[in-house]
Amino acid sequence: MNDVHLITHPLVQHKLTLMRKAETSTNSFRRLAGELSQCLAYEVTRDLPMHEIEIQTPMRAMKSRVIDGKKMVFLSIMRAGAGMLDGMLEVMPSARVGHIGLYRDPKTLIAVEYYFKMPQDTAERDVLILDPMLATGNSAVAAIDRIKELGPRSVRFVCILTCPEGIRHVHAEHPDVPIYTAAIDEGLDEHGYIVPGLGDAGDRVFGTK
Ligand code: URA
Fold it and tell me: How far apart are CA 94 and CA 172, in angstroms?
């Protein structure tokens, strides 16, 4: 598959199994989403370019490596993306955060934008788009279309769960955007939900059902 990074680390898979379970409480689901996102953050940033700087330890001077250029910007797809944000910020606390509000028209499943706010210097930054569920790909494609208008250095899509339909859709429109995920499930049901999946990620993070 075209630039899809399946994160099979045992910690990631264990946490995902707990998140999938219908009986997992809102409290636990939210905590697990944060912990799993921290694990994903390490994988997504594995190949960031670095350079050496001179530093002074308490013992002596040395050269040591730091990440190149400006920091990341996270683009959280509201509202479920918020479930991944705190975990990502734990690992990259100086990252900037943008938001895009998209709702799925329940009949057409098409993504409709109702909010968009990004840092002014997004063109100089690497963007990580966060949405726990890459399902039909409609929201993902809409978010990538929108962020590319700002000309960022790079765009990556990070989710917890996806399916072949979602991957195909994103890579048909944006073959240059790598997808990072903890699992690729069987497919979509007639309402556009991933099966076996974990249900509605937004409802499970916020306890709204
Ligand atoms: N959004 C969700 O929250 N869950 C799905 O299965 C699909 C889209």
Answer: 33
